[in-house]
Design a protein that fits this description.
By secondary structure, this protein is α+β, with helices and mostly antiparallel strands. It contains nine helices and 21 strands.
Length: 316
């Protein structure tokens, strides 16, 4: 849509969780996904793929048709962003299957040349990994299937296992290209022109999903609701607060670092920043309240939702 301004929504989140994403284990040990830093410590992380899957699952967005193309599963050729919020927001790659979906208006030679043709659309919503703000210290959980083994006739089949465990604050960032939501040049679709309310509803639904994000893993449901959130809609598309949310001490948010970023944004009139916080979850809650002028998490998402409404209403 020509009059839609090229603006970006970005928000960075802190939440508290434990043992929410495992990688490839070894033997009978389930290993958490981890990265190492030069300080000699390891930090667990929850991959962006895991975050996005959980979000889609919670919102009921895992319903776009898919099919195997050769040995690779892809979205079907006829799937489109008009019908699917999933591929509208998170992109796609789809390949025209051979011998199917031939265009009767084209010659046999033209149809043959299009077999295997690909369409690719980049994601307009991007998540970073959620990386722990507290280092991993090697904690392990030991377990067995003793309950089942005791039910067998000879009390056999006992299987011991170990799993790495880690409870921490995690931080991640989400960015959204607001002007590209509902627009797909590949298929000639422009919902910002034909149904802008749908574009608005999808981003508001996305924000609701982030506000109440949770992840089901290993017979447990992990609460990933934000305890701190910061962001807004800005004149440039930039993840301002990515890698800027830190703990200077146990449960103490690094407020001076955040203020430095806020001063930079304000000095260039890039847009208004909103901050929400569960103050009781931080040892310096009073400092966060007084220095950052934080509000409740509910107020944060309410104001961001209002900003999204205003953005799309202005372009309608």
């Amino acid at each position: 849509m020509e009059n839609m301004k090229n603006k970006g929504l970005t928000l960075s989140i802190i939440f508290e969780a434990d043992s929410a994403n495992y990688g490839e284990g070894y033997g009978n040990v389930s290993a958490l996904k981890r990265i190492s830093r030069a300080d000699g410590n390891s930090y667990t992380y929850i991959s962006r793929q895991a975050l996005i899957f959980s979000l889609k699952n919670n919102l009921g967005w895992l319903n776009t048709k898919a099919a195997a193309q050769g040995k690779v599963a892809q979205y079907t050729w006829d799937s489109n962003i008009k019908e699917s919020p999933e591929i509208d927001l998170f992109g796609y790659m789809k390949t025209k299957p051979k011998g199917k979906n031939e265009d009767k208006s084209k010659s046999k030679t033209e149809n043959e040349s299009e077999k295997g043709k690909q369409k690719i659309r980049a994601a307009v919503v991007r998540f970073s990994n959620a990386i722990s703000l507290e280092n991993y210290n090697g904690d392990m959980e030991f377990g067995t299937n003793l309950s089942l083994a005791n039910r067998t006739e000879n009390k056999e089949g006992l299987l011991p296992y170990n799993a790495e465990i880690h409870k921490s604050y995690y931080a991640y960032t989400v960015t959204v290209d607001l002007d590209l939501v509902g627009v797909d040049e590949n298929d000639g679709i422009d919902l910002q022109k034909d149904n802008i309310q749908e574009c608005k509803d999808r981003i508001i639904k996305l924000l609701e999903g982030i506000e109440f994000l949770h992840r089901d893993i290993k017979a447990d449901s992990k609460n990933m609701n934000p305890i701190f959130a910061i962001g807004g809609i800005y004149n440039i598309k930039n993840p301002f607060f990515a890698n800027r949310l830190e703990l200077s001490e146990y449960k103490k948010l690094n407020v001076p670092l955040i203020k430095e970023i806020l001063n930079s944004i304000d000095s260039k009139n890039m847009g208004e920043t909103y901050i929400g916080c569960l103050l009781e979850k931080f040892s310096n809650g009073e400092e966060i309240k007084s220095e950052l002028k934080s509000e409740s998490i509910v107020d944060f998402f309410d104001k961001l939702t209002k900003e999204v409404n205003n953005y799309y209403d202005a372009g309608n």
